[in-house]
Amino acid sequence: MMIPFGRKWSLIILLILWCSVFPVSRSEAQVSIDSEALLSQPLAGIQISGNIVTREEIILREMETKVGNFPSKGFLRRDQLRLKGLNLFSRVEFRLVGSVNGTTLMITVTELWYILPLPYWYFKDQDPQKLVYGFRFHQRNFRGRNESLILDFWNGADRGFRFTHTNPWIRYSPELSRSVELFQVTRNSRREGVSGLEERATHVGLGVGKRWTMQLVSNITARFQLVTASDPRQLASRGALDRIFETTTVTYWDSRDLVTFPMEGFYLQGGYIRGWILNNGRHYDRLNLDARAYLPMHERMSLYARLKWAPGWGSVPPYDWFYINGTGPLRTTGVTAEGRSLYLGGLEARMMLTDLHYFTWKQAPLFAQYFRNLEYGLGAEVFVEAGDAYQNAKDTGLDSLMMGYGVGLLLRLPYVQVMRLEYCLNPKHSPKEASFSINMNVAF
Question: What is the pTM of this model?
Fold first, then answer.
């Protein structure tokens, strides 16, 4: 979402003051150990409190710390962050205590409001003339089992609906997951030469996954898609309708400490897409490789690096091409590119400017339990990125390489997780052409 250049500094100053001086309690240690001697004793029990909706089995399955094992500071901290990363709790506290029955781990969680019926709006491609607005019903902890249920309707520059249900753990199965999705969108084509012409896509998808370890996960998804358009150049079949069946296989290793705001760890992903255009017999393929490293430099600061390569070949449909426009997926300004393949690299220094704080709305008229221990804080980032979207490997080179750099503020907010306010520049353009944008979640 773009914001007028002249108004951004007042907004930034207001946010800094809010996060710095608003009178709420500071974050104390969220993993505490009553005595170091407890670490040399096997764990006799785990007691969980605060989970009004969430089932205990959902919490225990995310933990490497088990009854009978010797606890360690490292495992306790990783388990606490893994539970926080479920996005089910605003706060997770561990306390290792001694009792008459032996060493006990006390876990206290504060649950978030899981049922979120809310309106929303954003600017597509960071363009104020492309307003999209809608209404989303999102139940993030369906049946208390960390299942996600989404019903979404939107209108404006794009219009459509989406229904998804994701179950990260099928009960009584060997760590299997399942997802289903029904989706339809009417949008304007981004392809050069037919930009602005409408196309409609309808697809249904089914996915299954396997969690091999706490960090290693594999997923297989099958999708059938119908796409109609007014110009043959918008479609892969060069007709009026594409019928596509597509399979996607993804395996990833994720050792990040906190998915929503990582400061340490690694993320490695390998994926492969194979698609068949049923009405002309052609097919296409795409490889997706993504490597990210998060290296702590200080307790408040980390250095991040990312390399992404997604080559495509065959008859990749134009609506599945990569489009660089505005500030995404490359954070820069004043450039556009399109193609069936993408490469991207980036470095970022990310730091926390304030401690994490928590506040409780004690006078909340309804659902007071969901306004307790709401977390917020303020961070900052400095980044540099380079990449390109291309059609064929021969099209790549230093002449086509696009670059961007900039700075940003990172607001850690309840129910939003992270809001990014970024100031993006291009070394080949004047600073007067810089872009200011607002996005959700960390860049990577």
Answer: 0.85
